[in-house]
Amino acid sequence: MADTNKKTLLLSTVLFIALLVVPAILPRFYTYIIASIFVTALLAMSLNLVVGYGGLYQFHHCAFYGVSAYTVALLITKAHVPYWVAFGAGPIAGAIVGYLIGWFCVRLSKLYFGMLQISLGSLIWALAFRWYSLTGGDDGIHGIPVPDFISSTKSSYYFILIVLTISLILMYIIIKSPCGTTLQATRDNPERCEAVGINVRKHQLVALVISTFFAGVSGVLYVILEQSVFPDLLFWVLSLEVFIMCLLGGWFTFAGPIIGAAMMVSLRTFVGVYTEYWTLVLGVLLILLIFFLPEGIMGFFLEKFGAKAPTEDHGGQH
Amino acid sequence: MEAAHAVTFAALGSHLLVGLSRAMILFIVSSGLSFVLGVLRVPNVAHGSLYMIGAFSAYTVFTAVGGQTGFWLALVLAPLVVAAVSFVAERSLFCRLYEREHLMLLLFTFALMLILDDLVKIIWGADYRSIMAPDYFKGSVNIFGSSFPKYNLFLLAAGPVVAVGLWLFTNRTKIGKIARAAAVDREMVGAVGINVSWVFAFAFVLGCFLAGLGGALVAPTVSITLGMDHDIIIEAFLIVTIGGLGNMWGAMVGSLIFGITQSFGVLLWPQFAIVFPYAAVVIVLLARPTGLLKSVW
Question: Is B95 an interface residue toward A (CB < 8 Å)?
């Protein structure tokens, strides 16, 4: 096990260094695509914290991502607060909304949890979509100024890479912490956890707040990269897409959602160049995956190369 | 609050009727979703796409035949087209997944949604389409002192007809009873020698047929376009959840709540009308977390 850990660490370091030199070699367009993969990957990772490790049906994760992006955009364009205050406020707003929605949701189970979250999230979407005077309605907000030193594609790439790396390390530490392992226990056997005196709901709520905080971080990165926000960021279709990224990459592995996000974004970009029917290609690919790689791409490789057998029962009966 | 509208009895009445007729469309679509959810226990994400295919098929039949016959033929054929599509998808791929992890079934319906949406784009293109109801459904009648479109009256009648039909079907026919039994205890149904896989196929196709019927019925009242599936699917899911999963009458109650709050929202606060039904769903779920009526699970 120690050997695999060392290998993974070495691999991650090599990958990180490789990603550092990417903007120097690749053209600007590819730098941008990789940066947007980073943003999406962080969103998918934060979702996986509650879906993969917590077993919760987090069906409207993008609500928190969008709330954070809108908070940053509104604070900068309307309230003219300093950039760093706005960037800090985004994830905090995401986590606060996450706490409020989560407080209601953890009282319900499985599908009902997901449905309540979709309706509460849709409320936020409807507000952003209709409140023209504040949010610009379906046009969104464009040309959001960002500090000079992260305004170019290259510099924002580095900033996003560094924030992503720090976030991933933090998430990894959280998952391996006692709180994280308890969360996984509540996923696998909530009744027994309750019996030994673990407050299941409290752990789920804490996980939800942490997860929505990181979704918020991803929302801030989105604003830095795109310098615009629009209501689709809060729409449930995007939430479903992110959910699918976790399943696609393998949702019981740490790195799975990153692979899923990378696949989804590159498919959209590169297949989208050749045909406008890229979702058709994605659909066919998904069906192939369902039939041939049920554990997701990452899960498949882990199984194949024997690092760790994927868990069998993961509380997904319904 | 923008209460500039004079909230008169007449305005209330006409909004109520508009809300009710919207509720009937929602009921037809969400009862199909509920039926699939009840028997197969799969939230069929592709349900909205099938509704959209229903509307587009109705358009094709209507333009090919035209006139009054075209309208009625579209109403009959469009749901059958949708049923055929879902039958092919179910028998060729979906039925092989029943033994698998539950989220995989959800993932499959998502993939199906992606594929169907693009197929609609390939076949019908991204233009706005519309069809016309027959002459006797055109214009409006005076009810409560305000005008009310005649076609909406037709919808008001269609909803209960479908409800009664569905009720008779699930309670009075053998296959319907088997499907209901499978919803409650599928192992037992298998144990008494019934081919559960075909029961599932039947339930899936019937549910999708209702989506297609909803799409065909709504076609004369909206512009038929790509993306019309996104709103209906989320609404149908919420309706099914607040009504009680798999409960047909629950779908009716949920649709009424959704349709009426939506139309009164327009009356009270037009800009944020869209917020009202979602808020109603939140209130219902907080008061009764497992839905208003008994879930079949």
Answer: no
